[in-house]
What we know:
The structure holds two protein chains of two kinds.
Chain A: H1 2-32, H2 39-57, H3 61-84, H4 93-114, E1 128-131, E2 134-137, H5 138-160, H6 162-172, H7 174-179, H8 184-206, H9 217-231, H10 236-256, H11 262-276
Antiparallel strand pairs in A: 1-2
Helix pairs in contact in A: 1-5, 1-6, 1-8, 1-9, 1-10, 2-3, 2-4, 2-8, 2-9, 3-8, 5-6, 5-8, 6-8, 9-10, 9-11, 10-11
Chain B: H1 7-23, H2 27-52, H3 60-77, H4 82-104, H5 109-129, H6 131-134, E1 140-141, H7 157-179, H8 182-192, H9 194-199, H10 204-230, E2 232-233, H11 240-253, H12 259-274, H13 282-296, H14 300-316, H15 328-331
Antiparallel strand pairs in B: 1-2
Helix pairs in contact in B: 1-7, 2-7, 2-8, 2-10, 2-11, 2-12, 3-4, 3-5, 3-10, 4-10, 8-10, 11-12, 11-14
Amino acid sequence: MDLFLQQVLNGLTLGGIYSLVALGLTLVYGILHVPNFAHGAFYMAGAFLSFHLMKAFGLNYWLALLGSALGVALLATLAERLVFHPLRKASGLHPMIAAIGVLLFLEAGAQAIWGADFHRMQTPYTGILDLGGLVMPVQRLLIILAAFSLMVVLHLFLTRTVMGSTIIAMAQNRDGASLVGIDANKVSMLTFAISGVLAAVAATLYAPINLVYPAMGHLVITKAFVIIILGGMGSVPGAIVGGLIIGFAESFGAFYISTDYKDIIAFALLVLILSVRPQGLFTRGAH
Amino acid sequence: MKYLIGKPGWLLLLALGLAFPFVAKNDYHLTVMSTAYIFAIATLGLNLITGYTGQFNLAHSGFMAVGAYTVGILTVDHQVPFWIAFALSGVTATVLGFFVGIVSLRLKGHYFSIFTLCVGYIMFLVIEKWESLTHGTVGIIGIPAPTAIGPLTFDSPRSLYYLVFFFLVIGVFVMHRIVNSLLGRTFMAIRNGDALAEALGTNLMRNKLLAFMLSVFYAGLAGGLYAGFVRFLGPGLAGVEHTFEMTTYMLVGGLGTVLGPLLGALTVPWLTQYLQFLQEYRFIVFGPIIVALVIFLPHGLVGTYLGWRARRAANAAPAAANLPPTEAPAGASRA
């Protein structure tokens, strides 16, 4: 039973991280209808920025998190201005390829600055909580808490503030949003900035129990894509539920099936689900 | 310039390719060129599904790895003669492509790309983890060189160069025939608007599947050649970076042309050779180039040139005006 609960906690940890990354991806998709392949690079950049801020400037964990969130938000906004904005009217293939260009550039850039080595990120929370036989590293609890509170904040922002509503409005109907006076440029930039913040926070939370290296975004972003396909591209609740599904599938799969193949589980799940339901789990109508 | 269009241009390229070993300063240059040819074959395949049919397949390098591992596993672990294994490399990729295709091609646009991205990852992870079959991260070492056919031996870089060149020429020729046939027109119709194509009576699924299988056949064959040429295989070959590289080649030359991807696949590796110090960081240069090309030259070098030519022809002869400039990538196949 303890082992089972352990897996539940692991699933929540993974699911929280995946949901944060998938949320950024799904918001951007809702606005621009571009699968942003560069999102994984934003995630990686977030981890490296925090790592660098902590190592070179001796900032504490939370300040580094804040700094990297701001930094990646800026990076994402720049990418929107320089790359995606000029391509907003191009055909489906071209923005996708441009996103790949951004991804390749950021990864090679990180490698040039910090090298291809694996780095370990320090965290002040190295303790382990023992809750009646249930062993829980504090960092993991922190991830769960932080990830889910950020989701609540995001939800409140999107539904209770005018600024957040503009994002929802534009995702629902671009022309309609323009007609009521919503500035499409502002909303695009804002959405990219939010997605950057989410990626940076997810990366900084997860990095201490993982490693920091230039290719760290690959698997995470691919899984995030799996999640938003399952949850419906552009859907906020879908991203959260999908993230949890993949998180749980992975933690239980690693435990009950095989650790070697745990990374395949998410993809196998996608192939399986799309073979039966090409429209995804929670969406109506075909893609 | 106009003498270089059509047959004379292709014959010139053929002559250049045949003469290259006599001009090349050393074996290293031959190796670079042969590797470029192998990736050019795979890029031609990617271009059929992406440039002509409009479905961006991100698992392409995975299929190339499948072809390569077919040769590697059969020749090293089962002592199958090289040529039989090589013939099977295209077949394995195509059979696998059939099953991946019937699932993935039901999805449209971005969904197809993301799905194939995941399929590519599955391929990579399976190759990396299934040690008893693929030797895992150690890779397959000691793949035999292609065995002699009669008096033709393939033990020198020069003979290997001609072998690879031979397959590239066949590949280009067949691709040229495909895209200029009714089938090729069907693929382009699907790219330009699948609803319209369907309304005109095109069986979408069957044609997309055919394009997909043909495209991965090229990838599998290129993989088989790669195995015989490099004679060492690691799971890295399946990495999505290789698909990204092929995308760059395709984009530099021009999506949806035969000449474009070929030129891209041949020139870009040479650029990287000259930017040798960048090897590791070549994407710092390539990334922005990709973005700039997509924004400013979406049809690539060849596509832009053909579009310009088509517009000029349309202006010069109003009779030819029924060929709108937006048709450039489609018309490009004739060059």
